[in-house]
Every structure is written in structure tokens, then in C-alpha cells.
Amino acid sequence: MQYQYISYVMKKIFQMSDLSMIRMVNHLFGKNYTDDQYVIKYFEDEPILCISMIIGGTDQYTCYVPYFEFIPQIYIREGGYVTVLHFKEQEQVTVTDRMYILMDCSARKLEKEGLILFLPLLFYCFREKEQNSDIKREVLKYFIFRDIVGALHDSMKKGDISVYDAEKLKQLCGYMAWKMLLGVKWMQSLELQELLMEAFSADIELLERTHQRELDNIRNK
After folding, report:
1. Using CA atoms, how far apart are residues 147 and 90, in angstroms rounded to an integer?
2. CA–CA separation, 108 vs 105, rounded Å?
3. Consecutive H or E run containing 209
4. Using one digit for the tens of pLDDT, what is the confidence trace for 62-96?
């Protein structure tokens, strides 16, 4: 079931703006693609959740999310698609591409690494950590209202994602929070559930201002 949730998030990441994909690749691989480059995207969920991109008509990059010991990992490869990954006991796995284990990541780390698009996947980790209920509630509040908000704000400020991307990511964070945590006992607090709904609701005023600004720019050209 958790695979289904992560698959849904990956499909939504696939629908993010070309700008966000270009900025991610520039961060990870030291590229200098301009924001107006056309991006062709392909999504696959078998055998591995995968987003493939072709930038500028020739350069290919692949983002895929395999599981290792039931923990999702993020691999970013420059070049072609990897058809099979083998993770066997005692086996040496050599990876020359970018690799990130979700359990070792924070919202701030993803933002600094240029991986803000994968922010919603971090909710997977809350279910895995061994802590008492009170601590988990406080950690979740801090994560939502400080880490997520701060990371999205910094990414927008740097131009790595658009306002629309940020709102989509915020909604995906809400989706993952509900799907991963709603059945957990310590989440049965009405106060906490109301906080989640408030934190991840769409900022309609911000979207309207952004849309109006874009219309004004078009009229003034």
C-alpha cells in the first residue's frame, strides 16, 4: 500500500513545471541549462518508479525510487535508464550517480541539494522512527511549520520552483501526511488533524496575486 502512495506522489512530481526539473538537474550535475529549455518527460512505475527527462532534445536524466530494506531511496542518473537493480546481502553495489536515502534526509537538506520536489516523500520516515507519541507530535509540528514552510520559501526565493509548484508540493505533503499517518494512534488528535488541514490548504490569495501579475506582464509587453 505504501508503494501505491509513493507512486502517486512520483506521478505528481512528473507533472511539475519544466523549470523545476531544469533547476534540479543544474544543481545536481553542475549544468547551465536555461529556464526556457524544453523538457520531454516520461513516467514509468515498473520495474522501478522512474521519471526520465530529455533536456534540450538530447541530454537524458533519470530519477528513480527503489526500495532497499523497505526504505525508499532516490537515485538521479545522468544518461540512460537502469532496468534492474540488485540489492543482495553481501553484494557490493557501485553507484556513480547521485544517491540519497530518505531516512538520512531533512527538508533543508533536500532544498539545499536541489531535490525539493521529493519533499513529500519525507513523511514516509515518520512512521519508521522509534519515539513516544508526545515527541512525535512535536517533531511533526516542527517539521510542517518550520522545515517544510522554510524549505518551500527558500526554493521559491531562489527561483528553483514556481509558486504553482510550491502549492502542488504543499498539497502532496498533506496527501502523504494523511495517508502515512492517519491510522497511527498518536495522530488521532483533533487539534493535530486541524493543524494539518490548515498547513496544507491552498494559499488562494497568493495564487490569485501571482496569476494577476502574470496577466499584467503579458498585457504590458
Report:
1. 36
2. 8
3. helix 204-219
4. 888 887 666 778 888 887 544 333 434 444 444 44
